[in-house]
Amino acid sequence: MANIKSAKKRIKVTQTKTLRNQMIKSALKTMIKKFEVSLENNDVNSASDEFCRITKALDMAASKGILHKNKAARKKSRLALKLNKAQA
After folding, report:
1. What are 5-14's contacts with CB under 8 Å, separation 24+?
2. What is the pTM (predicted TM-score) of this model?
3. What is the DSSP letter of 1?
4. Contact 25, 71 (CB under 8 A)
């Protein structure tokens, strides 16, 4: 355990940021699962709505540094491929 006041504060700040990052990552995973379930049910309209939300959330996560920008781009690309395949 840290003894210095600034080190104690850094521990608290790190814990807070870690929780925030975990919440955002968990929400992203949930959105992606909903998207894939709607694709399995051949519900292309709700899948396209979910895709728009996922795209925005991935961009926000990448801009906040929660995800790497290339990982966000890769996820968007793969989800877009799935959506286009379902629409065809």
Report:
1. none
2. 0.85
3. -
4. no
22-77 per-position pLDDT tens digit:
999 999 999 999 999 999 999 999 999 999 999 999 999 999 999 999 999 999 99
> What pLDDT was estimated at residue 39?
93
What is the per-residue pLDDT for 27? 97
Determine the Cα–Cα distance for residues 65 and 62; give it in Å rounded to an integer.
Answer: 5
Task: Spell out the residues 6+ positions from residue 31 whose beta carbon is closer than 8 angstroms to its own.
Answer: 50, 53, 54, 57
Residue pair 39/26 in contact (Cβ under 8 Å)? The answer is: no
Residues 6+ apart with CB under 8 A from 39: 47, 82, 83, 86
In angstroms, rounded to a whole number, what is the distance separating the alpha carbons of residues 18 and 84?
Answer: 35
